[in-house]
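Q: How do we represent a protein-ligand complex in a form that can be generated cell by cell?
A: Start from the inputs.
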Amino acid sequence: NFKDTDHAIDYRKSAFGLIAYNFGDMGAMLKGKKDFDAAVFASRATNVAALSKIPHEGFIAGSDKGDTDALAKIWTDKADFDSKMTQFQENAAKLAVAAQGSDLGQIKDAFGNTGQSCKGCHDVYKKD
Ligand code: ASC
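Then emit the C-alpha cells for the protein with ascorbic acid bound:
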C-alpha cells in the first residue's frame, strides 16, 4: 500500500512522465521530426502499453490534495474516470500490436486513438 497520498501522487506522476517521454518520441517519428525507426517505435509502443496500466492504482481517495494536477472530479465521477483509463489501456495495447506490423496507416490511426485517450481524460480530469 502507499505510505500516504503524496506517495500515490508521486507513483502515478512517475508513470505519466515515462508515458509522455515514450509517446512523445513516437509522435516525433510520425510527424517527421526525426527518422522513423520501426524497432524503436515498437519498443516505445510496448513500453506505453505496459506503463498505461500503472497510474490508475495511484488515484487513491484524497489524492487530489498535494503536488498534483488531478481534479477532485475524478473521485466524484469515478466510474467515468475508470472507463476512460481502461479505454486508454486498450488503445495503447492496440497501438503496441499495430507497431509490430508495417502498416503505417494503421500505426498512425492507433497512435491517434491513443493520443485522443490521453487528451480526452486530461480535458475533463486534469488542471490546465
Ligand atoms: C503527449 C502528451 C500528452 C498527449 C496529448 C495527446 O505526447 O504528453 O498528454 O500526447 O497531448 O493529445
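The radius of gyration is 15 Å. The domain at 5-125 is CATH 1.20.120.10 (Four Helix Bundle (Hemerythrin (Met), subunit A)).
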